[in-house]
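Dear colleagues,

As part of the handover before I leave the project, I'm documenting each prediction I ran so the next person doesn't have to rerun anything. This entry is a single chain, and its sequence is reproduced below.
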Amino acid sequence: MIDLEKNANFEDQSPWLSVEPPYVYLLYALMRCSQPKTIVEIGCGQGFWTQAILKAMEGWAQPARPVCVDVRDVLAPNFKDRVDFRQLDWETFWPQMPKTDAMIVDLAESLTRRFFDERVWPFLNPGGWFLCHDTLSHPEPKALQDSLLASPPAGAWVMPLGWEGLRDHGEELEGVLLVRKA
């Protein structure tokens, strides 16, 4: 069992991180439990998810080198030497997309079922997983979640999670969607 309270001190690396722990702890736990060998993060921004990924990999015998993609070059400088950062839009990156064990996507406006079926599911290795957020606060991820729950791909395990949102960000409910490929 992972003691997240003991093992996940994120303030020591990033004073700009101003969000509550649920996102961070979930991603951290997924990373620690599955220890993926390949990781793709789409829409990495300043590195909110990146920080949890890197923190979770501490102590691994052979840590992965995450591929982090964003259209803007705003990833925190202290993360860039530990990841393969690519400043590209999704359309440019997609033809270069590697097969992966873990895919974290922060592109709320792009998360349609067609996007998932064409650009996520085929690139997940068996046993791999996909994680997105904003499933209760944005219409596209919510519609994707509803579609996947109603009609999951063969061999998919679909798990929606929700909690009270970040009040200082104006969100009343927040959620994530985790999909695992058998």
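The two ends are 22 Å apart (CA to CA). Helices lie at 4-7, 21-34, 48-57, 77-80, 90-93, 113-119, 139-150.

All the best with the project,
I.
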